[in-house]
Amino acid sequence: MLSLGFVALDKQQDRPYCTELAKRAGRFGISVCRFSPLDIDPQTEQVHGLVFQPETNEWTPAMFAIPPFLYDRCFYGSDDRSKKAKPIMQWLKQRPDVTFLGYGLPGKGEVYEALAAHPLLSAYIPPTSPLEGAEDVLHCLRRQQAIIAKPVHGSGGRGIFVMRKQGAALSSEDGWGQHQTIITRRNELERFVSSLNRCGRYVLQPLLRLSTPAGEPFDLRFLLQKNEAGEWRERARAVRVGRAGAWVANVGAGADIRPFSDWLDRLTIPRRAVVMDGIETIIRALPAYMEERFGPLFEIGLDLGVDDKGAVWILDVNSKPGRKIISVLPPEQQDCIYEAPLRYCLFLAREVNKR
Hints:
This protein is of the alpha+beta class. About 30% of the residues lie in helices and about 30% in strands. It is built from eight helices and 17 strands. Helix 1 links the parallel strand 1 (about 1-5) and strand 2 (about 30-35). It has a six-stranded mixed beta sheet with strand order 4-3-2-1-5-6, with helices on one face. The two termini are about 20 Å apart. InterPro entries: YheC/D. It comes from Geobacillus icigianus. This is Endospore coat-associated protein YheD.
């Protein structure tokens, strides 16, 4: 029986998703275990983790060898656990006896840079530049009324700031539109930028007009995964609508998930055609190009924005997407998403046996 390891820093992370996956694993001849990179004994290379028991549908503590196939769901912060876990995962990804479902993407800066070099996808990327000092903010604001600062390794809308001209000053708000700071002096801006950079690298982009007629921020989320033949397939699409007054539409920040078709039906027929052409162009070209530039992937969470003129923009490309949009899907489509990692694991196993 094949062994698939689900790796996360927090043992509770994605537990419902992993449990649903594990319930189906027996039909594919796969056993599923869960562990953190810090659960690996450096002396014996044995893992102190949890193994799913199909007889009881429960996870039980066990010691086992590092599984030959791993599903990386690790999200890193600036805490000590993250600093210890990240090099362990890098070590695992170098091992010839271990195959990952996907090897992940770099930070937003590198992803945007790669997309900007693509002959088709470059048209859908907002102008992006690194945030290194106060002059970078001032340079962007000379050309734009408002800009957004995004952490290179951020997720869930955390760490995002919007900066806007306000007379002779500028204002800064967090992504939820709750905490506003008025900056009137350059040294205040320098201190603000330094505080951001202490938390990690940032990029700057123009603030796009991505809101509903009611002033709610929204974006389009697409979940793409590989099938049992290693081919990319779209699994789900939905609209995420945030709170009026906020700048982000992340579910973790309280956004609603709504059916994509409801949103699309509200567009005029000419605008609908333009928007769908952009969406389909991106979905066809992006997954294979990301792998060409950055290595093997299994799944992608693709966030797109549509501005008030109907232009489509690539907002984020995530190789470790969330699963919240599954809730709008019928049961048979949900089942397909839970089975996808198992089917792809079998595909990888066949590829390994050919070597």
